[in-house]
Amino acid sequence: MSDHPEAPVAPVPAFEPPYYLAVFTSVKTQDLSGYRETNARMEELVQKIPGYLGMDHAQTPGGLSVTVGYFRDADALAEWRTDAEHRAAQRRGRAEWYESYTLHVAKVERSYAFSRTESAETA
After folding, report:
1. How far is it, in rounded angstroms, from Cα 5 to Cα 13?
2. Which residues of 72-104 are buried (b: 16+ CB within 10 A; e: fewer)?
3. Helix (H) or strand (E) holding 35
4. What is the pTM of this model?
5. For the ABM domain, which residue ranges apply (predicted)?
6. Which fold has domain 19-111?
7. Helix axes of 74-82 and 84-92: crossing angle, nearest 10 degrees
């Protein structure tokens, strides 16, 4: 994804449920002045929250971006939601960077993973 060129090409691992997801789906504006710097700062901040588990990012060629944040519990997610610097970035995003977005929050009740590499190693 263009916002995360250094991001590994592997999903966040499956965790023992229950845990929470915040799924942020967006379409950005043409003028993204300051977006990359703010986005990098948000990633730095969220990683400091106890209970933060990881994040996946994807973007379609047409410009739809999806970011999924994983949190151990509702308290960790609430801490992220109410962080003052994050709130300021949200306001700037609505004013400058997003044409539209949706946010979905869900509690995960089942989680599993597959990796071709791990399957080959255990065969």
Report:
1. 20
2. beeebbebbeebeebeebbeebeeebbeebeee
3. helix 35-46
4. 0.86
5. 23-92
6. Alpha-Beta Plaits (3.30.70)
7. 60
